[in-house]
Design goal:
Elements: H1 2-21, H2 23-30, H3 39-51, E1 56-61, E2 71-83, E3 89-95, H4 102-121, H5 125-132, E4 143-151, E5 155-163, E6 166-171, E7 188-197, E8 207-212, E9 216-218, E10 226-234, E11 248-253, H6 259-265, E12 282-288, E13 296-303, E14 306-311, E15 323-328
Parallel strand pairs: 1-2, 2-7, 8-10
Antiparallel strand pairs: 2-5, 3-4, 3-6, 4-12, 5-13, 6-7, 8-9, 10-13, 11-12, 11-14, 14-15
Helix pairs in contact: 1-4, 4-5
The structure holds copper (II) ion.
Copper (II) ion is lined by residues 89, 172, 174, 182, 187.
């Protein structure tokens, strides 16, 4: 039990390492400055602030940042993630324990984190584990509450989750070609979720996916083309060998695309895993990031006829039943 909890802690640290390092740039990055008048910025203003639909929030990335609101209502929230960059990204929502902010991360998390990460890069996994063991206890109380699955460049992904009030950090831990996490490049942002609730109700979905540690991904639907929504029901959850829990990502595959390459790539702990470039022949269409057992999240995607994959970002996804192929007709 002790080992398990220590491993879990390590995983969280890995994901959050960059946040504290980048808090300064995040603070500046959140300000909508007049000099930033690119087409993408204009589009964000139009979509997010002029339409202003309650409970629907746009998040925009043009390079290595998250542009979005600083404050959200609680309850059901839909996120439209506009990936206007040239890299694949994702968004994981981390709910912080009460009273903790990015400032605490900076003070208490950075030093052991940096030490641990350096050791991982040297291949010294055991020593890295010891370094992460110096992290404060509160870090184990960070809860992962879903988010947006992997989404290819120049694409939009839509996810819906229920958020409790509190302080959240949103982050992307995909890696640059040199192995540096996007988190450390600025893809981390603090958001406050207030007690006032949105008017959104829990969505209904066209199709239903289940994922559990024992059964893997269960999906037996006959899927037709068009804008479709999916419910993701999380059964038994677990921390996998790479310290993360399982999630569900939707991917369109070319007829000759190599599923083994996809499976290897979605595992961040592989030296080239989750690192640019993404494997050829696949287009990532979003999905639902990890959530605790018993939770449900939703995502939608515009489906054309063809070959599709549902996959969890875990090592050995196919052996675990967490790689499921289906067709859209
Ligand atoms: Cu990213």
């Amino acid at each position: 039990m002790k080992i398990q909890s220590s491993i879990f802690l390590n995983g969280k640290c890995l994901l959050l390492m960059g946040i504290s390092i980048f808090s300064f740039s995040c603070q500046f990055g959140e300000k909508k400055s007049d000099e930033d008048s690119s087409d993408n910025e204009i589009q964000y203003e139009v979509v997010a602030e002029k339409e202003g639909k309650d409970g629907v929030t746009d998040i925009l990335t043009t390079s290595m940042e998250f542009k979005t609101k600083d404050t959200l209502k609680s309850g059901w929230n839909t996120f439209k993630y506009h990936n206007k960059s040239n890299e694949t990204h994702l968004i994981l929502f981390d709910k912080y324990p009460e009273g903790k902010t990015i400032a605490d991360t900076e003070r208490d998390i950075v030093p052991p984190f940096q030490e641990g990460m350096d050791l991982i890069n040297e291949g010294k996994m055991e020593e890295a584990g010891k370094a992460f063991g110096k992290l404060p206890e509160w870090f184990q109380d960070v809860e992962f509450v879903g988010g947006v699955g992997l989404i290819s460049p120049q694409s939009v992904a839509t996810s819906t989750m229920k958020l409790e009030p509190g302080t959240y950090i949103i982050e992307c831990y995909v890696k640059m070609p040199n192995g540096v996490f996007h988190t450390t490049q600025g893809m981390a942002k603090q958001i406050e979720v207030v007690s006032e609730e949105t008017s959104l109700v829990e969505p209904t979905a066209d199709y239903s996916i289940s994922i559990s540690a024992e059964e893997g991904i269960t999906f037996d639907e006959k899927v037709s083309a068009g804008e479709k929504s999916f419910a993701v029901n999380f059964g038994k959850q677990k921390v996998h060998e790479h310290y993360l829990m399982h999630d569900v990502n939707l991917v369109r595959a070319e007829p000759d695309a190599d599923l083994a390459a996809l499976e290897k790539w979605v595992n961040w702990s592989d030296p080239e895993g989750l690192q640019t470039p993404a494997p050829k022949g696949f287009k990532f269409l979003g999905g639902m990031q990890e959530m605790n057992e018993g939770k449900t999240g939703y995502f939608s995607a515009d489906l054309k006829p063809g070959r599709y994959i549902l996959i969890a970002e875990v090592p050995g996804a196919s052996k675990k039943g967490m790689l499921k192929e289906f067709r859209v007709d």
